[in-house]
Specification:
It is built from 11 helices and 8 strands.
Amino acid sequence: MAYRIEDNLALLKGVPALVLCGTTRPAGFFAYPGLPSTPDDPDTRLIDLCTHEMDIGWTLRALADELGEADLGPEDFVPLDLPALPEGALTVAKVGEAVAALMPENAVVVDEGISSSYHLGPGLRRARGHDVLTITGGSIGFGLPNAVGAAVACPDRKLVVLEGDGSGMYTLQSLWTMAREGLDVTVVIFANRGYQILRDELAAVGVREVGRNITRMFDVEGPELDWVALARGHGVEGVSVTDMAGFNVAFAAAMDQRGPRLIEVVCPVDSR
């Protein structure tokens, strides 16, 4: 499911059935004027296959047995189609392609890119097999501590955190824990210098013009954040990149080494 309710309305339009496995009926993050709270089509049949308290893995295996598809693997459904390493000017979409091209099999991706995530998705769908942990309840700042927990639970898997600069400031101290515990986490910060998602949400409820104070509340500048200095101050090596060549080198190096790393991707809002 996408973040924006309009995207989910389009995704589920005319869908005859929606099977829920380990989750509940989807809903919008907020109430928007003129839009429903739930994105499923009124004519869509909702099927509760199992709740999150039940054995989800067993349920899916039983379903696969029933359908005669228990022996099929991921390669039978989505052939591997790694993107080429993108070059030139930096965009968020290109970063998604580079991550997909360089990330190893069985990695864990923690996605709190928020306004950047939509543009990362097409590239990441072409990556090697990996798990994705995403925001589930609208709580800003979950990404970095979530990665700490995942890295402790899965020390043999590469962790990649895709994090907005505004969201990352909520739980910045997680970098210190990554350094203290020697966790194999690569943090990619999308530095668009603002809470872009809040700007988008304000527009979604019909507010098109704002005053100086609201504009300043949505900015992450004045002073401008130095993520490389912030990372090093917590014991994590960091680098800032402004083009795809720089990102490709930095991310490839992080994938080839163990331990925490931070890559600041300087990306204006119009560089998606």
